[in-house]
Every structure is written in C-alpha cells, then in structure tokens.
Write a structure and sequence with these properties.
203 residues; alpha/beta; two-stranded antiparallel ribbon; 6 helices; 28% strand; globular; binds S-adenosylmethionine
Length: 203
C-alpha cells in the first residue's frame, strides 16, 4: 500500500486496517478528493455506486462531521459483506448502508446496460454522488445509467464524482450526461485514473 493510502488512513484514524485491493480500490488521489469534499461540504446524503474503501472512508467522514450518511450500491454479495464487516469493525454502521444490488440488464434512453437493480431510491435528496462502479469492462458506457437513475433524486445543488474518468468510455459518458442533463458543469482533475467532478445547479 502506498504512502498516499497510509496518509488517508492516518488522517481518518482508521488504524485497524482498510479494505485495500491494489487493482480494485479507488486510487488514493481520488479518495483524497472525495474525503476533502465530504469533510468540507458536510453532505447529508451521499449515494454511491460500488462499495469498499470509498464507503468506509466516506462513512468515517460523516462520523467526523456528525452529520450525513452513505448509501452504497454493491453488485457483488461478497464485496457487500466485506464492506459491512469493515463498517462494523469501526462502529460506522449508522453512517453507511451497503445495499445488495445485483447487476441487471436494463434499458436507459433505449440502450441496454448491465446496471444495479435498484428497487427504490431514498426519500431524501442526494447531495454527493460517487461513481466508481460498475466495472467498466461490462459494457460500453457502463456507468451512464447513474445519471438517468439519480438525476431526479439529486439536490438542487449537488456534486458528482466519477472515478476512472481518464478512460475514453468515461469521457464519452460525461459528454452524454452534460448534453442530456441541465445544470451540470464539468471539471476534470488529472488524478492517477482521472476524476470528473460535475457540479449540479438545477435550473
Ligand atoms: C473499482 S471497484 C471499486 C470499489 C470501491 N469503490 C472501492 O474504492 O473500494 C468496483 C467494483 O468491483 C468489484 N470488486 C471489488 N474488488 C474486486 C476484486 N478483488 N475482484 C473483482 N471484482 C472486485 C466490486 O463489485 C466493486 O463494487
């Protein structure tokens, strides 16, 4: 594990281990961006596509903030269970909920995608949306459905963080979102895997 992960671990006092996986965890520089944003903006509801290190760190930020919670969609039952056990280890169960959401073939804007099965969305509006799944190899624009599903549930002023945004597929997805959904402004941050930050001000 690199120094950047260790530094985040120290910052958040996660001294009993973290669910780090070299190929699958969000990169440390992406984590630092969402951790800083969460500590600064103190969102009430964070909605997340894919669980793991991101979930644990955001839940810890909510605990530090004394406000907010994370709802995380996870398609892999074993990864959902692993994230839950880390949340339990740190007593963070009140700050994050991992929902089992197996991938299901679904159509959005007349195109079929493998995306999380979401029976219902939270009543509360989303302040921060973090997208680090589903895995990009599943289908073209694999993360596109996040906005068709979440846009109606996003707060008037909210922020979206997309990991792996250096990939052409994710760049196309961001363009499709910006064309289709009003009120988005896009900032690209050159992190290890690229981070797109979309600020939403609903018209
Ligand atoms: C890029 S990972 C990101 C997970 C999470 N955001 C994090 O930072 O730990 C996206 C998805 O890959 C899957 N995954 C996680 N670890 C995996 C592994 N070791 N092998 C295969 N798939 C994995 C999980 O379903 C996870 O939701």
């Amino acid at each position: 594990m690199t120094e950047a992960y260790q530094s985040l671990q120290q910052q958040l006092e996660l001294d009993r281990g973290i669910p780090y996986s070299p190929n699958w965890s969000a990169a440390a520089d992406f984590l630092q961006i969402i951790v800083d944003a969460c500590l600064q903006q103190k969102p009430s509801l964070i909605f997340e596509c894919s669980s793991g290190l991101t979930t644990l760190m955001l839940a810890r930020c909510c605990q530090i903030n004394r406000v907010g919670r994370v709802i995380s969609l996870e398609n892999g039952a074993q990864y959902a269970e692993a994230t839950r056990s880390y949340l339990q280890r740190y007593g963070l169960q009140d700050f994050a909920l991992v929902r089992d959401a197996p991938l299901l073939k679904q159509k959005f804007d007349a195109v079929a995608y493998d995306w999380y099965s979401v029976a219902d969305m939270p009543d509360q509006l989303i302040d921060m949306l973090v997208i680090d799944g589903p895995p990009g190899f599943l289908c073209k624009h694999a993360r596109y459905p996040a906005l068709p599903v979440c846009y109606p549930h996003l707060n008037q002023q909210s922020t979206i963080y997309l990991d792996d945004a250096a990939r052409e597929d994710e760049q196309e997805t961001v363009s499709l979102w910006c064309d289709r959904y009003p009120g988005l402004s896009h900032e690209y941050v050159e992190t290890e895997r690229g981070c797109s930050i979309l600020t939403l001000r609903k018209p």
